[in-house]
Amino acid sequence: MRSCAPGLRVALRLHDDDFATALYRTLRAAHPHALTRSRSVSTLAAPAFAGAMMGRQILGAIPVERRVLLFAALNVAGHPQLEGRTVAESFRAGAWRVLALDTAAPDDRLPDLAANPAHEDSDRPAGLVWDIHPGYVLRPRDRVVLAATRQGLAELLGRQPHGTGPERTGRTD
Questions:
Q1: Sequence-distant contacts of 165-172: CB under 8 A, at least 24 apart
Q2: With contact defined as beta carbons under 8 Å apart, do 68 and 43 qualify?
């Protein structure tokens, strides 16, 4: 269709995410200068659904092409991929990256980092350190903000069947 009418806008509603991905790639390859977007309803709804399931842990989500990047607050304790490792060692390409460290003492932390601190107790020490040294060793009492794929966060939280991680499937979701 685009060969005959390059300016024609076409909208398709696709429920199969794999098919939507294949269609997107095919159209981008055939018409590299055309404005091509492909979104599935489930992919767009996933961040809100994940946020509702995980409560205050999910701070936000950004759709990036055919994937969703989640921002989450996570206590380091109990996560062997983080605990006792440096910030640099804890990085998993295509899965997660530590972005910030909550400097408040555990008893003084805001339960919801996405909340507006102006409405909270003004005497409460607050602050996220965004420029963490890559050699900083993550301790069990630390809370971090990280960017993660849906699959990466599921792996960190232990909600993924063994043997289906990105290093085995090649997918980064």
A1: 165/95, 166/92, 166/94, 166/95, 172/67, 172/94, 172/95
A2: yes
pLDDT tens per residue, range 20-33: 778 878 888 887 77
pTM score, two decimals? 0.61
Q: What is the pLDDT of residues 100-134, one digit of tens each?
A: 998 887 777 766 666 555 545 545 445 788 999 99
Residue in this structure with the two tokens 């991905």, named with its chain if needed = 21
Distance CA 130, CA 99 (A): 6
Kindly report the CATH class assigned to 41-169: alpha beta
Q: What are phi and psi of 151, to 5 degrees?
A: -65, -40
| Long-range Cβ pairs for the range 13-19 (8 Å, 24+) | 13/41, 14/38, 14/40, 15/40, 15/41, 15/42, 16/40, 17/42, 17/43, 17/66
The domain spans of the chain are: 1-38, 41-169
Amino acid, res. 166:
P
d(CA 39, CA 64): 10
Q: Which residues contact 69 (CB under 8 A, 6 or more apart)?
A: 61, 62, 63, 147, 148, 149
